[in-house]
Amino acid sequence: MTPDASLERPTDELRGEALALSYGRTRVVHDVSLHLRSGVVTALIGPNGSGKSTALRALARLHRIDAGSVHIDGTTGRRDAASLTAKEFARTVAMLSQSRPHPSGLEVRDVVAYGRHPHRGRFSGLTDTDRDAIDRALALTGLTAMAHRPVDELSGGELQRVWLATSLAQSTGILLLDEPTNHLDLRYQIETLDLVCDLADRGTAVGVVLHDLDHAAAVADEVVLMRSGRVHAAGAPAEVLTADNLTDVYGFRIDTDVDDATGRVRVIPRGRHHERLRRSAAVPV
Ligand SMILES: Nc1ncnc2c1ncn2[C@@H]1O[C@H](COP(=O)(O)OP(=O)(O)OP(=O)(O)O)[C@@H](O)[C@H]1O
């Protein structure tokens, strides 16, 4: 699962400034700014309901913006995301949403081919470039051998990889992933994280919502810690993933240390079960 290094290096960046977002009359995201830079993995973390998905969806033009702006900075200068046609935007930004449809009556390859829609003319068939992009997306997600299986027969994790492949087939310079490791077994969780890093290494701007803080520590160049619809802290993983920040935001004791092998922060949640383990270790059976 390594992206093709021969492809042109993307340079687009996505900038959400002072975003205010609501459901109906309820404001759920307040004054949030997010800057997704080319070649950088930005992880959005925070408790349930803190506004991560809503913010990511706003960057993908899937949620109405009450105040603030979303811009794309690319080779042709700065463009307001709202000024692009749907196809232009979809050639620039791909998003793997948390709510993923369950298509039926289609093969895996057909679903992944949907990712090429923004690159195709209204009546034109798949070009060689389209087919190459589909093959590459299937390979990157470990789906080549399943390309002709009906999607109706797939497990939740396999289907998740099909949607990831569909986003990759869009061949965008900006990739937004909402909990991409959900439903995946350990191998594909790690492969997906590796893929995220590989894509960033060849220039993609990646914004990824992650619940596993060790995953965020392992892959993120920048971490945005959200709380109650606001950015509580943002910056390098070692600056954001501190015991104080995490304990404060998640509302129970969380310690951190540093993995000697990688130099990355390790997160140690101190649930009541730790106390139980400590007691049972102290009292010989
Ligand atoms: N469709 C909706 N209608 C009304 N309120 C919503 C809707 N979706 C989300 N919300 C509310 O908006 C707030 C932010 O939700 P959001 O899904 O962005 O949080 P999140 O950080 O992604 O949460 P999670 O980690 O649980 O996925 C929450 O208070 C949530 O209850």
Automatic annotation (TrEMBL):
Residues 14-253 form the ABC transporter domain. PROSITE patterns: ABC_TRANSPORTER_1 (PS00211), ABC_TRANSPORTER_2 (PS50893). Keywords: ATP-binding, Nucleotide-binding, Translocase, Transport. One of its GO terms (molecular function) is ATP binding. It holds the Pfam family ABC_tran. SUPFAM superfamilies: P-loop containing nucleoside triphosphate hydrolases. It comes from Microbacterium jejuense. This is ABC transporter ATP-binding protein.
